[in-house]
Each structure stands twice: as structure tokens, then as C-alpha cells.
What does this fold into?
Amino acid sequence: LCFQIDHPHLIAVHTWGEDRGRHYMAMEYVAGSTLEALSRRRDRLTWPMAASIVADVASGLAHVHQLDIVHRDIKPANMLVGRGGRAKLADLGLARDPQDGLGLARRLTTEGAAIGSPAYMAPEQINDTASVDAAADIYGLGASLYQAIVGRPPLVGDSPLDTCRRVLRDRPEPIASFHADVPESLSQLIDACLDKQPERRPAGALAVSEQLRGLIGLAGYRPGTQLDVSDRLSL
It folds into this structure.
């Protein structure tokens, strides 16, 4: 099913398989950078730039969700930003496809182990990886946007286990306590994405994308206007 996915904000997967005991996945090449690398190199992105990147990714994620696929590894390192500031969502290796159970992830990870990256995993994903739905990916969008603006994930501990404990127990510091220039409506959207209860998060990735684009429009931001050649990495 991964090979049937076609969307301007999704990395195309050409093929995957196994060669001499090693699994591989061949994907579309994007000349650019990841949101993870950009947030590290620039300390933090301006909120309109960060919102534009995540809005693109959320649009692609909405298409994935329409196919009843849960990505399960939404994070800045899987958001590729190409020329012009346009972003694409990558890495469907951990995606859960109802036609294939856990899909490729079953063959790449230890059965029964938590799948994903702790700092961006929703609480319910930490508790039960196999049965999460699209709401877990919405949490990942919120955590990624938080990092892009603040410069670090919303909750991180001294170890992966400690990070998981914090995600299950603690609430992130409000973005307003770091940067007063972030609109209250954007802070509220991020808080909603990071809600501990899946049913309280935004209704879908498309709703997140549309709300972000609305805020970007009000700010008068045009994608790519603040992304120069020095920000682009060959991946």
C-alpha cells in the first residue's frame, strides 16, 4: 500500500526489501534539510517558518490517514525541507497498515517493543504501540512544531525511559514562557495536539494544516522567503 501513496507533501517510496540480512527502503531523493537539522542550526525557526513546514507535513499526513495508515514516527528528523521551503513527510518504515498488520515495522523491531521516538510519542503509543490510531500522529505534529519554535522537544528526560515517564506524567512548559511573539492561537493549537487524552486533540491532520495555514496567512509569510542556501543540506 505504501507504493500507492502519491501526494506532493509525502516522500515517494519506490521499493523495499532485504539484501544479505539487511532491510532497505528506496525513497525519493530530496535536496534540502530536515526540520531537525534546521532547528539545530538556527537555534529556533521563526514561528511562521516552523508553522509552514509542519502545515505541509500535516497535509501529507492527512492523505496517509485517509488510507487508514498510522505513521507512528512523526518527528522533525522525518520532515524534509526542500528548495523553496516546501516540506515532505518521510519514513513510512514504522507505519501500521491494516492490510499488513504492523507492516515492515514488524520485521525491523523486536515484537512487543515500543515503536517510535520517545520525545515525540503520544502517551497511548508508549503504553500500546500496536493499537494506536491517527491521534498519536497528531501528537507528533505538536511535539515537532514545539521543538521547531522552542529549540527542544516538549518533554525530554535523562534517558529514553525517563522521557517516556515524563510524557506519561508531565505537562510541557507553555511556549509563551519562551517566546512572547508566538500567537496565542498557535500556542493553543500546539497544546491541543499535545493533550494527554487522544480524543481531545484536533480532529485530524487536515484540520491542523488548515489552521496553521490560516495563521501563516495572517502573518503575511511566504514559504521559502527566510530559507537561504546555507540552510540546505544534501540528504
